[in-house]
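Protein modeling request. Please complete all fields; requests missing the sequence field cannot be processed.
Requester role: graduate student
Desired output: 3D structure, token encoding
Chains: 1
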Amino acid sequence: MSDAADDALTTSFGLSVETVHVKEIELSKDHKEKIAVIGDGATTAGFRLAGIRNTFVLSGAEAEAKLSDLLSNPDYGIVMVPERLIENCDWRLKKRIEATAKPVVVAIPGMDGPIEQSESLPRLIKRALGVDLTKKK
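Delivered output (137 residues):
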């Protein structure tokens, strides 16, 4: 990634590139799972600057349809979507998100902050992988 892209990401989102520079989840040498982002132009641009290739600028019914497609695609391990999309989507899709262990659907807060306390990332990982990352031995 170029220095200009690093600077733009740091300026726009207050993040250093090192903290979000993940393109795929490597489960083994033979298998990698993709990360996808569905959202508005500003959100997806930030993730593209961080190296995420699978970004989709969609809203409403188109975003719901894309999320449904990604939930059925075994190539994806993480799908990030705006909280508002999950809040406003059809109840059947909400049930499917809750029942699906993979891909993990991560709700991204909007510009006005989080809607409510959502499920934490460690809990999402525990649900998806069955491993509690916060538990000390």
